[in-house]
Design goal:
The protein has eleven helices and nine strands. The chain is α/β, with parallel strands linked by helices. The protein has a nine-stranded mixed beta sheet, with helices on both faces. Helix 5 runs antiparallel to helix 6. The longest helix has 25 residues.
């Protein structure tokens, strides 16, 4: 009995020593907590990111700059990993601009815009490939049938894709709404309303909304209301789209997507470019 008692004590004592040794071997360094950076808390849950064809061309013409495409995919991927659901509407003027064609030739406007819709789908498929290169799943949806390369537009399916963390790209002028006379700006506003997005982000090659009354040609607003925009700012997008966003209380951010870091900042809700809403104060 006495031997068993000693063995029990040794077991208890040995376990106690190992436990103390384990605790002593993993101390918490002084100041370690201060060095830990919390993950950013994105302002937006779901966004519609409108990309102009001109911005996609970069410094070139009638093409898509691969560096710009990878910049977009890299920064959108960063925002997606933070939990933001991203839908994209992309223009096609870098490949074909319907307005320019009609002005130069006088040909039928609807036909020219239909070609522009297909140019937008080309950009959409190229962006989809760039996202997949960054290990981000993406789906392209259009309202006209292209079963080999895109899905038909379906609101519920688009929302489901977003909830699964996939990027949804709405291709075609009018965001594939089957009406070539819709601008991509209007399409972005319409899709934002349909999928319950919290903001429309217009990425272009300018820094924001410029102040028409300023002596400084480079002066841009940081925050302005839809009402004041018409009298003070250079209109940054289709006025019909702006009116639609105003009526539906969907804020708009206009920013330069070619500036590194701007895309992820805009998607996550950080201050970049010009923020436009119904009650904004000019600054």
């Amino acid at each position: 009995m006495r031997g068993r008692s000693r063995r029990r004590k040794r077991r208890r004592f040995g376990f106690h020593l190992r436990q103390q040794q384990y605790v002593a071997a993993t101390p918490i360094p002084t100041g370690q907590i201060n060095n830990v950076k919390a993950k950013p808390n994105p302002r937006w849950r779901r966004v519609v990111f409108k990309i102009s064809g001109v911005a996609l061309a970069g410094t070139g013409q009638n093409n898509i700059d691969s560096k710009v495409a990878m910049l977009i995919s890299r920064e959108v991927a960063t925002a997606c990993r933070l939990g933001v659901e991203v839908a994209i509407v992309v223009g096609g003027s870098n490949f074909f601009c319907g307005d320019t064609w009609v002005t130069e030739t006088g040909y039928d406007r609807s036909t020219a815009y239909q070609i522009g819709m297909m140019a937008s789908v080309m950009n959409s498929v190229l962006l989809q490939s760039a996202f997949e290169k960054m290990s981000v799943q993406a789906r392209v949806q259009t309202a006209f049938t292209l079963p080999e390369v895109t899905e038909p537009y379906n609101r519920q399916r688009a929302i489901r894709h977003l909830e699964k963390g996939r990027v949804v790209i709405f291709g075609g002028i009018g965001s594939g709404v089957a009406n070539p006379l819709f601008s991509t700006d209007m399409a972005a506003a319409l899709r934002a309303s349909e999928i319950h997005a919290e903001v429309v982000l217009k990425g272009t090659n300018v820094d924001g909304v410029y102040d028409c009354h300023s002596r400084d040609n480079n002066a841009t607003f940081e925050h302005i209301s839809f009402r004041e925009l018409g009298s003070r700012g250079a209109i940054p997008m289709d006025s019909t789209a702006l009116s639609f966003c105003d009526e539906n209380s969907i804020p708009v951010v206009v920013f330069n997507l070619l500036e590194p870091g701007n895309i992820s900042k805009a998607i996550c809700g950080d201050q970049v470019g010009t923020f436009i809403d119904r009650t904004g104060r000019m600054s």
